[in-house]
Amino acid sequence: MATKKKTTVQKELKKVVRKKVKKVKQDPALMLLLIVVVLALAIVYYIFFYQPPATQTYGSEQNEEGYYYYTLVENNTYYYDANNDIGDALKTTLHTIINTGFSPTTYDDARQILGEADAVLDDPSKVLAIYNSATVSSTWDGTTWTREHVWPNSRLGIPRVTGSQRNQASDLHNLRAIIQSVNASRSDRIFTDNSGENQINDDGGYYPGDEHRGDVARILFYMAVMYDFLELADEGFEDGETYTMDRITMGKLSVLLEWHKLDPVDAFEVKRNEVIFNAQGNRNPFIDKPEYVHLIWENKTIQDLTKVETTTFLPNQSFGFLQMVL
Ligand SMILES: [Ca+2]
Fold it and tell me: Which UniProt keywords apply (predicted)?
């Protein structure tokens, strides 16, 4: 009985609504008023409730804390075997990938190759010297610029490299064009934090300069994976004899991890990686896939680094709402 009554009431209500809708549809003035009201509501919502996406303070591939977003790579590409790996497993896979096809050049060869690899992007006649950003003739003359070992030769577990040798001290990824006097100041100091220009720090460490700190970090990350006997740490730098396997530690790791975020990968590093890939047959993974750093040294998971697309109320959604109403 109650259900039947309810049904009758519902029928009556529907009838009234239909009549009203019909009236509105037949009356252009009412129709216009309805459109204006709905539009006004949409505008009020847009002005007061619409939140534009937060402004990025880092490069476009990083989140607001500076972590690089994770992406998988396509089948048959250089890092394919590293897809979904994290931690030590990722480090081991990358070690295999970057040793495959590796054909080291001699330390002498680096004089010509660095002239191209470290060339200023819009002026190949000049190289960009590391740390002080000097730009000088890219043609090797033995005095204008020389070869910097970012991971110092004295901490590579082998004697001082000679011109004809091919080993960890002739690896092009670790070599950069440098001005002689800057090379002397940097010496084989570990890297410690500061800000501004390149300088020797009060703690005896070296600050590479704001524009060079990320480059330095990514080079050292490459070396620690390529030559897996080398160590990145926060201490233990003075243990053992230089130029032997007793002193193979570089850092400071915690500082390098921050520099990697603060000075993101740029076009100069991308070009340099390409030139070196053509010369010695391997790549620096941390320039191509900067997010791998967080997975190996910062205990991050792939989920931590996956970009979450947030839904926002956009103008075209308001129009969709209008269409639905009308
Ligand atoms: Ca940089």
Answer: Endonuclease, Hydrolase, Membrane, Nuclease, Transmembrane, Transmembrane helix
Distance 217 CA to ligand 1 centre (A): 10
pTM of the model: 0.79
DSSP of 219-235:
HHHHHHHHSTT-EE-SS
Alpha-carbon distance values, 127 to 111, 143, 150 (Å): 12, 14, 16
Each residue of 65-120: pLDDT tens digit? 999 999 999 999 999 999 999 999 999 999 999 999 999 999 999 999 999 999 99
How many Å lie between the centroid of ligand 1 and the Cα of residue 53?
26
Residue 24 CA, ligand 1 centroid: distance in Å: 64
197 vs 313, residue with greater confidence: 197
Domain boundaries, the chain: 2-53+310-325, 80-297
How many angstroms does the Cα of residue 263 sit away from the middle of ligand 1? 5
What CA–CA distances, in Å, run from 75 to 261, 281, 302? 28, 20, 18
